[in-house]
Amino acid sequence: MSSQIAMLLVRASEEAHSEPLIPVWVVGLITFGILMALLLGLIAFGGGRDHS
To answer: Does the keyword Transmembrane helix apply (predicted)?
Structure first.
């Protein structure tokens, strides 16, 4: 019984491999863009303020 379960698990794991819907580098570029926008906003907001 357990050998049949093991074979089913192996077969299911072999069939599960597929290409991702969104490439990894696209997610990285989007993340980088968001972080750069936040950094520029922080610099613009705090650029003219004196240190406390």
So the answer is: yes
